[in-house]
C-alpha cells in the first residue's frame, strides 16, 4: 500500500472511536435514567459516525475490496490499534463516565490540532467532529462533577473509577512509527505535545469534583501496538459475529 | 361539588369532545377520563421503554456500521418517545416515579410483543416492518385524540415510527434478495413475528372491554378487528413483493369483501403472554428493574449535587 503510514495513522484514531462507541452501545436501554440513556446513545452515535468517515477514507487508501466494514469487522485482535482505555468495561456508571471523560479531554485536544492537518480529509473530519466532541466533553465533565460532589457513595465510586482508569491515560500520548512519519509531514498531530494540557484540564475538573488526582506513576500500554487487555476479544466476538458467521454478504 | 353541577360539567365536557375540541391539562375532566388516559398513555410510554430492549440486544452485533448506527438511532428514538409520553402522562397529575413503580410491580402493562426474543439479525427487520407497522396503524388515529398533550406527542411519534417501518422493511428486502441463508433468516423471522404482530391489536371486538368508552373519547377511532384487518391487507402485498410467505395457510383474498380472510389467532398464547408467562416477560422486567435500581445512586447524586450548587449560589449572593 502506498499510503501505509497514513492508513495506519487513521486507524489509530478511528479504532478508538469505534471501540468506545461499541462499548457505549452496550448500555442502550440500561442507563440510570431515560435522559442519560439518550445522551449515551447519542455519544455512541457520534463516535460511530466519525468512525465511518475515517474508515471510508482509509478504505479508499487501501483500495482493492476494502470497505468501511471490512476494516471495522474483519481484522484480527492484534490488528486493532485502539488505546486500552476505550476497551475497558462499563463496570458501573462511574466507570462509564470516567472512561468517557478521560478520553473526551484527550479527543478534544487531538481534534483541535487535527483540524489544521495538511491532509484535507482529516482536517474536514476533525472540523466536523470537534463540535460533537465538545458536547461529549461537557457531558462527561458535568457528570464527573455531579458524581464526585454528590453523595458519599457516588464520590467513592467516582474516585474508584478514576483510580482504576488512570493507568491507561499515559498511553494516549505514545506515538507509533507511522504516527511519527505523519507528524513529520504535517498530517498527524504530535500527541506528546498535548500531554501537559491534558493533565492540567483533567486535574482542574477533578478538583472541581472534589476528587483526588491519582498519584500513581505506573501506567499500562499496548493497545497502540495491538496488544490488548483480555476484554478486547469479547468485544470483537460480539462485534464481528455476523460478518464472521456469514462472510461476503450484503446487509 | 353538587351532583347536578358535576352532571352539567360532564355534559359540557362531552360536548367539547364531540366538537373535536382538545382537552388540556388544566381543564376540568371526569376522573374516569383522567384514569383511562393515565392507563393508556403510560402503557404506551412503558412499551417504548421496554421495546428498547429486544432491539438493543442487537446493537453490539449489527452486521455493518451503517446498520449499527441506524439501529442505535432507532432505539434512541424510542427512548425519546418514552420521554415525551411520560411527560404527557405527567400532565394528568402523576409522577414519572409513580409510573415506573407501576411498571416494575406489574400493575401497569406494556405491549406484549416485546416479550418475544430477538434471536437473529432478521428480527431487527421484522420488528421494524411488522411491529412498527402495526404500531402505526394503532397510533395514527391518536394524532386526533381528544387529550391535547397526547395528541401532540403522537404526531411526532408517528412520523418517526413510519421512518422505522420503512427501515425495517428495507432490512427484510435486503435479506430477501441476499443469499439463500439470508432469505431463510428473513422467512424465519416473519414466521415468528407474524402472529404476535396480529395480536398487537388486542382481543377481538367481542372480548374487548374498553372499546366503547375509548371510542367515545376518541382514544380509539376504529375497533381492534378493523385495525387488524387493515394491517393484514396492507402487509400481505408487501411480503409478496419481496418473495416472503405469510405463515398462514388460511390466508386468502376475499373478492367480495375486498380484504384478506385469515386463520384463527392463538388466543391462548395471547393471554399467556399478557398474564406474564411469555418467553421473555421475566427477563424484560428484570432488565428494567435492575437498570432502575442500579441507577438509584446516580440519580441521588445528581439531586445532592444540584442542592449543593443551589446552596453555594445563595451563599454567594449574600
Automatic annotation (TrEMBL), chain A:
SUPFAM superfamilies: Ferritin-like (SSF47240). GO terms for biological process: phenylacetate catabolic process. Pfam families: PaaA_PaaC (PF05138). One of its GO terms (cellular component) is cytosol. This is Phenylacetate-CoA oxygenase subunit PaaI. The lineage of its organism: Bacteria, Pseudomonadati, Bacteroidota, Flavobacteriia, Flavobacteriales.
Automatic annotation (TrEMBL), chain B:
One of its GO terms (cellular component) is cytosol. Gene3D superfamilies: 1.20.1260.10. It comes from the Bacteria. GO terms for biological process: phenylacetate catabolic process. One of its GO terms (molecular function) is phenylacetyl-CoA 1,2-epoxidase activity. It holds the Pfam family PaaA_PaaC. This is 1,2-phenylacetyl-CoA epoxidase subunit A. The lineage of its organism: Bacteria, Pseudomonadati, Bacteroidota, Flavobacteriia, Flavobacteriales.
Amino acid at each position: 500500500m502506498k499510503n501505509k503510514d497514513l492508513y495506519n495513522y487513521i486507524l489509530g484514531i478511528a479504532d478508538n472511536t469505534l471501540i468506545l462507541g461499541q462499548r457505549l452501545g452496550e448500555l442502550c436501554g440500561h442507563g440510570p435514567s431515560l435522559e442519560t440513556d439518550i445522551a449515551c446513545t447519542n455519544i455512541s452515535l457520534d463516535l460511530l459516525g466519525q468512525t465511518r468517515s475515517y474508515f471510508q477514507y482509509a478504505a479508499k487508501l487501501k483500495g482493492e475490496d476494502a470497505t468501511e466494514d471490512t476494516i471495522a469487522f474483519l481484522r484480527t485482535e492484534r490488528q486493532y490499534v485502539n488505546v486500552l482505555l476505550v476497551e475497558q468495561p462499563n463496570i458501573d456508571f462511574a466507570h462509564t463516565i470516567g472512561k468517557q471523560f478521560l478520553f473526551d479531554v484527550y479527543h478534544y485536544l487531538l481534534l483541535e490540532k487535527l483540524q489544521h492537518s495538511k491532509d484535507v480529509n482529516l482536517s474536514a473530519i476533525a472540523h466536523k467532529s470537534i463540535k460533537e466532541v465538545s458536547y461529549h466533553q461537557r457531558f462527561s465533565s458535568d457528570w464527573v462533577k455531579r458524581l464526585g460532589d454528590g453523595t458519599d457513595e457516588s464520590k467513592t465510586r467516582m474516585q474508584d473509577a478514576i483510580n482504576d482508569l488512570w493507568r491507561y491515560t499515559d498511553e494516549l500520548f505514545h506515538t507509533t512509527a507511522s504516527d511519527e512519519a505523519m507528524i513529520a509531514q504535517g498530517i498527524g498531530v504530535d500527541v506528546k505535545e498535548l500531554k501537559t494540557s491534558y493533565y492540567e484540564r483533567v486535574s482542574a475538573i477533578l478538583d472541581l469534583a472534589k476528587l483526588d488526582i491519582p498519584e500513581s506513576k505506573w501506567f499500562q500500554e499496548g493497545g497502540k501496538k495491538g496488544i490488548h487487555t483480555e476484554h478486547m476479544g469479547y468485544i470483537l466476538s460480539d462485534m464481528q459475529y455476523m460478518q464472521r458467521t456469514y462472510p461476503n454478504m450484503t446487509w | 361539588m353538587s351532583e347536578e353541577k358535576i352532571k352539567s360539567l360532564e355534559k359540557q365536557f362531552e360536548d367539547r369532545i364531540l366538537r373535536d375540541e382538545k382537552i388540556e391539562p388544566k381543564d376540568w375532566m371526569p376522573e374516569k377520563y383522567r384514569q383511562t388516559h393515565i392507563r393508556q398513555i403510560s402503557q404506551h410510554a412503558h412499551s417504548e421503554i421496554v421495546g428498547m430492549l429486544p432491539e438493543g440486544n442487537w446493537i453490539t452485533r449489527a452486521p455493518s456500521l451503517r446498520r449499527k448506527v441506524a439501529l442505535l438511532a432507532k432505539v434512541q428514538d424510542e427512548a425519546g418517545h418514552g420521554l415525551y409520553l411520560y411527560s404527557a402522562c405527567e400532565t394528568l397529575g402523576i409522577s414519572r416515579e409513580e409510573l415506573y413503580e407501576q411498571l416494575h410491580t406489574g400493575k401497569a402493562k406494556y405491549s406484549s410483543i416485546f416479550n418475544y426474543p430477538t434471536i437473529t439479525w432478521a428480527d431487527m427487520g421484522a420488528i421494524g416492518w411488522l411491529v412498527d407497522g402495526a404500531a402505526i396503524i394503532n397510533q395514527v388515529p391518536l394524532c386526533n385524540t381528544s387529550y391535547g398533550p397526547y395528541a401532540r406527542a403522537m404526531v411526532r411519534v408517528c412520523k418517526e415510527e413510519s421512518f422505522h417501518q420503512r427501515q425495517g422493511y428495507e432490512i427484510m428486502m435486503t435479506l430477501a434478495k441476499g443469499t439463500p441463508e439470508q432469505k431463510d433468516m428473513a422467512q424465519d423471522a416473519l414466521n415468528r413475528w407474524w402472529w404476535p404482530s396480529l395480536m398487537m391489536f388486542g382481543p377481538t371486538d367481542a372480548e374487548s372491554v374498553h372499546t366503547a368508552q375509548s371510542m367515545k373519547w376518541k382514544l380509539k377511532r376504529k375497533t381492534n378487528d378493523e385495525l387488524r384487518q387493515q394491517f393484514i391487507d396492507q402487509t400481505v402485498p408487501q411480503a409478496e413483493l419481496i418473495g416472503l410467505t405469510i405463515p398462514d395457510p388460511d390466508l386468502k383474498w376475499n373478492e367480495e369483501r375486498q380484504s384478506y380472510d385469515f386463520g384463527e389467532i392463538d388466543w391462548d398464547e395471547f393471554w399467556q403472554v399478557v398474564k406474564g408467562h411469555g418467553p421473555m416477560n421475566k427477563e424484560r422486567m428484570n432488565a428494567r428493574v435492575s437498570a432502575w435500581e442500579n441507577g438509584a445512586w446516580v440519580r441521588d447524586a445528581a439531586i445532592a449535587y444540584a442542592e449543593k450548587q443551589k446552596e453555594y449560589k445563595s451563599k454567594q449572593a449574600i
